[in-house]
Amino acid sequence: MADNELILTDVTKRFGGLTAVDALSMKVSSGQIYGVIGPNGAGKTTVFNCITGIYKSEEGSVRWRGEEIRGMTPYQIVARGIVRTFQTIRLFSQMSVAENIMSGRHIKSSQGWWHGICPTPGSRRDEKENWMKVGELLEFFNLEEFAATPTMSLPYGLQRRVEMARALAVDPTLLILDEPAAGLNDNETAELVDTIFSIRQKGITVLLIEHDMELVMKVTDYLTVLNFGKKIAEGTPEEIQKNPLVIEAYLGSEDEDDE
Amino acid sequence: MKKLSLVSLLVFLVVMAILPHLLDTRWQTVAVTFLVFSVVALSQDIVLGKAGMFNMGQAMFFGMGAYVTAILNSHFGWPIVATVPVAIVAPVLLGIVLAAPIVHLRGDYLLVVTIGFNIVFVQVLINNLGGVTGGPNGIFGIDPLRLFGFELSSQVAIYYYAFAVLLLTLAIMINLDKSKVGRALHYLREDPLAAESIGINTRLYKIFAFGLGAGIAGLAGSVFATQYSAVSPEAFEFIQSVLFFSIVLVGGSSIPGVLIGVFVMFVLPEIFREFSTWRFFVFGFAMILTMILRPRGIWPATFGKIPKFLIKEPKNGG
Ligand SMILES: Nc1ncnc2c1ncn2[C@@H]1O[C@H](COP(=O)(O)OP(=O)(O)OP(=O)(O)O)[C@@H](O)[C@H]1O
Ligand SMILES: [Mg+2]
Q1: Closest partner residue to A144 among B195, B196, B312, by Cβ?
Q2: Among A91, A99, B161, B221, which is least packed, fewest CB within 10 Å?
Q3: Angle at A92 between CA A91 and CA A98, to 5 degrees
Q4: Which sequence ranges form a coiled-coil region, renumbered to this chain (chain B) (predicted)?
């Protein structure tokens, strides 16, 4: 259990002259719901991109279960049980909800490339089993009636749910959510809170970025606060709420970009 | 829509199965050409339609299959049947080797590189590199196909040979859509970054698409060489690749769409032969109009190929 740890040490990512993430260290332990917060442009998404292999940090190390994953490709990192959602939803928009979720079963499927040319009884069974799993996720996320609907014709809130279902289809150990409540109404946000708790119930560690402070304070066990790429505080939600540095960072920007 | 596709596919297959007996020799030749070019267009659909890669060099793989059969038969005396596996495997290997360094390129760059490949290929043929391609005239006098002691040299026999190859290709296309690899191609076309982030090795599957497309086109090339018992470079020029590319886009990257596209591009011109100077003018405009009026093609590919048990009625009338 304790082995499912994500440890970032002095991770630095630069874009030209801009240091988007500056010597960030943090530790996500098994079973936690861990939050990363900070004003717009603080570098939160960039940190997630460095963990999931979309960017390679120039310096530092990203260790997952004791293994260095910095420099691996995104699909290699998914194969190790880390999967993510995007701040700007990225679904396969022309394809149906079920097909989108099925993409998460890709690495779990036992089919080889040759089965695409010539199926075998084994590959048909594998196909069936994975679609059954998709069925379970459709049910879990209450998406059954939209199974055959192309995701581009769904409202925002449902698209967010599909993206989470797709990520969970991977059977991840660590689920990374980039602003899962962005664009959701109050009802949907309340459902999201329940969903996050029930995901943790399944033994999945959750790492999330969120601007909705109410949600953050409700669900997270531990927080890291970024500003201008640097960590300015870490601690439990209660500690963070009282931290003067954090209050200052937020007062400086909250009003302009309260979305 | 699903029912309609299935019914039209069945009608198509039945008509195609009896067709040669209704036609004279000239039209039988046209029909074989339709079958062979359909196979090439479907192979192009795997690369362009499914995986979304702008490959403008499919005629090269088609030509390679044709030349492999021609060279092995006329220079090395191999029976035609024995050349077929090589006519598939050689383009597959070439496809993999050429695709590996270029699949990461953005659409427009990939397009230019594949055009370059096609041009180099035709130049190699014309300049008779290695002294086996026969230069600009190509290779004549290829043997007919012999199977189980029968000589399949009549147009009808070749028709059924080509028809069998088309059926095999259709089977592969249908299997692909119901498999992990086939879906992976759709995912990476829709959003490569999302595909990669959900665990798909996009590079590997792009190369797979190139290799599979090349192998099928190579097989079609082998049939083509057998049909005319001759091969020459101009049949595999880059302009042929442009036609296959257009067929997939105009057709809409579905099986019926691609078949209609091949019919419009290769069979209609034969039917309107009297108006020969006008026909390409008309087809050029038909292409332009289709893309403006139906940007997703004549018969667009549909998704939602999901098992029935997942499709549920909306709850409580909502
Ligand atoms: N690909 C990129 N190229 C150049 N600069 C980038 C790139 N990605 C991010 N940045 C910059 O890095 C900084 C951090 O961006 P990032 O997206 O990580 O912020 P964030 O904390 O996620 O903000 P938000 O809350 O708005 O999502 C910003 O100044 C941004 O402009
Ligand atoms: Mg962000």
Answers
A1: B312
A2: B161
A3: 90
A4: none
